[in-house]
Write a structure and sequence with these properties.
mainly alpha, single chain, Heme Oxygenase, Chain A, 227 residues
Length: 227
């Protein structure tokens, strides 16, 4: 289960409307019940593969903000997880859905994806450590909550569910553990930063939650640049 600490809870409460919106988004509900179309899932997976590259960059940047070797290593391992472990999942779905690593590399980022990546990178590079962590936290936290909700459903995930492997990734206890550890870093940073940094961090968290919803939205609508 998730161990939500006080500052993280404040961040979530501040962003609650947007937070709940992800669970109600038609992309998420269709993904969970298995009715999501292959073209929408393919669109999501390809954009997500590029997002994970930025997630790894953010983890790498944040690792430089710590003095403890063990803390640095934790964030370096987080970058590795994004680049290797999760991309293995994308590789398998690439075979099923008809895209290759070359297609991922040549992919044009959607407006929503590009904006989300820029937000994360800006917070990690130019904000306080607390702000960088707050911007990063919604992604794994939201996915963990989705995974937990799925794992608690009677009967679990059917063997013939078309997106079973994806759902199992985020229902895995090791992913929940990763999220809990990230929330611990967030809490510790909130205690070490003055109150003047708390509001900016909460705003960064809220914006990331909105971008998470927009990530579902872009895939649902197969977003393209309007010009």
């Amino acid at each position: 289960m998730l161990n939500v600490l006080p500052f993280a809870l404040c961040c979530k409460s501040n962003a609650l409307s947007s937070w709940n919106g992800s669970f109600e988004h038609p992309f998420v509900t269709a993904l969970i019940d298995g009715s999501l179309s292959r073209d929408r899932f393919r669109f999501y997976q390809m954009q997500d593969a590029r997002y994970l590259e930025a997630y790894a960059d953010v983890c790498s940047i944040l690792s430089t903000r710590f003095t403890s070797p063990s803390d640095k290593l934790w964030f370096i391992e987080g970058a590795k997880m994004a680049l290797i472990v999760e991309q293995q999942l994308h590789s398998e779905y690439g075979k099923q859905l008809g895209y290759s690593p070359h297609d991922i590399a040549a992919l044009e980022l959607t407006p929503n994806n590009r904006a989300y990546q820029n937000h994360l990178l800006s917070c990690a590079s130019h904000g306080s450590l607390l702000k960088g962590l707050a911007a990063l936290a919604p992604c794994p936290w939201l996915y963990s909550e989705i995974g937990i909700k799925i794992s608690e459903r009677p009967g679990g995930i059917p063997a013939d569910h078309p997106y079973r492997d994806w759902l199992l990734t985020y229902a895995d206890p090791s992913f929940v553990t990763y999220t809990n550890e990230l929330l611990f870093f967030l809490e510790r940073a909130s205690e070490e930063n003055g109150a003047e940094n708390h509001q900016a961090a909460m705003e960064a968290f809220d914006l990331s939650v909105k971008y998470e919803w927009m990530f579902w939205e872009q895939a649902w609508n197969l977003q393209k640049w309007p010009i």
